[in-house]
Amino acid sequence: MHAPASTRPTPEHEVTAELQGIRVLQRADWNDRFPWLLHGVTTRGFDMALRSGAPVGDVMARWDQLQALPGVRTVVHARQIHGSGVRVHDGGTPGLHLVSPVDGHLTRVPGVLLAVSVADCVPVFLVSEAPRAVSVLHAGWRGVAAGILDAGFAAFRDRLGVEPSELHLHLGPAISEPEYEVSPEVHRALGEPDPGEPSPLDLRRVLSERAVRAGVLPSRIGVSARCTRTDPLLHSHRGGDSMRQVAFAVIREAGP
Prior knowledge:
By secondary structure, this protein is an alpha/beta fold. It has helices at residues 28-33, 56-67, 141-146, 148-160, 184-189, 203-214; strands spanning 11-12, 15-19, 22-26, 37-42, 74-78, 86-89, 95-99, 104-107, 112-118, 122-128, 133-139, 167-171, 181-182, 199-200, 221-224, 245-251. The N and C termini lie far apart (43 Å).
């Protein structure tokens, strides 16, 4: 059953920004609301895939660029397995850290940049104001079915005492419903009505409805209006692209 229209989040149109030569998409209102947070999704022309077949040296140079952003000392990334694991990062030595396979990260430590790679799956940003903390999740349909969103909420609750009602959530650029036809088995795995035949699925709607049921206020949920399959700024796995963009967030070390 879909959420009533009155509780559905308003689509957000991210703005493009240049961060030391890196073109990214950002929520403009978050830049104003959370001046202590740097966040974004990289765009086409800045392939971050470690297994895309691109020259490894070129890809690693882009990761170095990400680490060179102001206030960043540590970058954490993981091999993603479409599961529900969320790792909490309490610090770390400077540099790029490829940690054990998980699909989500959480930190309250300034200077620790969290990164997930995406190219149709949904990048999920979760932000707490008090205490200041941020989480980034990689949510494909398997991860959503496995409970990655609830795992993100549980990490905030268990480690920081923060309830879903206290969080802000953004669902970033991902494949849109018209471009995402999936089998009835996928619909059923997500608790959706069985359409009886391959049918389109709006994974960001599924996530936003689950967030509201968990207690997130609809007014604190944003959903990107961008589709990775049709937007020329973005890579798309279904579009035959082996390259990836990265969704990232970091608490600024010198933030107000």
